[in-house]
Automatic annotation (TrEMBL):
It is found in: Nucleus. The lineage of its organism: Eukaryota, Viridiplantae, Streptophyta, Embryophyta, Tracheophyta. This is PHD finger protein ALFIN-LIKE. It holds the Pfam family Alfin. The keyword Nucleotide-binding does not apply. Belongs to the Alfin family. PANTHER family: CPG BINDING PROTEIN (PTHR12321), PHD FINGER PROTEIN ALFIN-LIKE 2 (PTHR12321:SF39). It comes from Fraxinus pennsylvanica. InterPro entries: Alfin (IPR045104), Alfin_N (IPR021998). Residues 10-110 form the Alfin N-terminal domain.
Length: 122
């Protein structure tokens, strides 16, 4: 699962985290597409595509902790795989992944900058 090893605090760190996670997802959907496609078996449970901050990717079940450490990516990416053309399915995963990347960046920005705002009040 995606995790925040040392939570990015500055705009530059959040952008680096975003870029690294994006790099992992792009690799999954391009260079490693055959491996990614094979891991997304529709017979398995709800799977998610995670991009990690070290530019790697992972297909796994969603986080078990509630609430999760980060926003969750699209759930059940494997279910539509065999009902669509491969390129349409990959495009759908790409759109969901873009949304997830932005939600992670905004989440990290929110917790970072809210922390600064609250500490200035005291």
């Amino acid at each position: 699962m995606a995790s925040v090893s040392s939570s990015p605090r500055t705009v530059e760190e959040i952008f680096k985290d975003y870029s690294s996670r994006r790099g992992g997802i792009v690799r999954a959907l391009t260079d490693d597409v055959d491996e990614f496609y094979g891991l997304c078996d529709p017979e398995k449970d709800n799977l998610c595509l995670y991009g990690h901050s070290n530019e790697t990717w992972e297909v796994s079940l969603p986080a078990e902790e509630v609430p999760p450490e980060l926003p969750e990516p699209a759930l059940g990416i494997n279910f539509a795989r065999d009902g669509m053309t491969r390129s349409d399915w990959l495009s759908l995963i790409a759109v969901h992944s873009d949304c997830w990347l932005l939600s992670v960046a905004f989440y990290l920005g929110g917790i970072s900058f809210l922390g600064h705002a609250f500490s200035d009040c005291f």
